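> @MW can you paste both from yesterday?
MW: sure, first one:
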Amino acid sequence: MVMRRFPTILEWDAEDRVWVTYVPSLNHLSTYGETEAEALERTREAITGYLEAAQKEGLSALADAPEPRIVELQVATP
């Protein structure tokens, strides 16, 4: 079995009071959990399911785009 790393964005959703994850390289796959650990475990499960479904359908699951980056922008605010 090959182990791969998938850059994942983890952020707090204050309105829904859950942790939300996004996996940009897998068509922005997203899930959530009440704790960081739960959100990340659900994300692992979602990634596995996504890759298995893509393989079953004969689709390329991985985008050819470069790895996502987080950049910091400076913006004037009122």
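MW: second:
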Amino acid sequence: MGLADDHADAAHVHLIACDEARNIRRGYRIERSVDLFGHHIVDWGWGRLGTAGQSRRVSFADDDEARRFVRSLLLRRGTAPRRIGLAYRVVTSSDM
């Protein structure tokens, strides 16, 4: 099982990838929620741990689209060992 299989339905996922010897300290977070108008919001952020980093937010008409989008973000994080030589690990994950 990978990140996407285990955490695609979570409302909040926080991942980190750290290797002090190679000076790698990356953080990644994904939050899925519903706003007051019933739109499904996915808010995600990334960057070096200890910095403000970057973030983005998208809105979806239904929950299935939002879950698919979260799954695609997690699938990309799952390729980290091939891209940066280090896997992300889950720090926190919670369901809606």
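> thanks! The radius of gyration is 14 Å.
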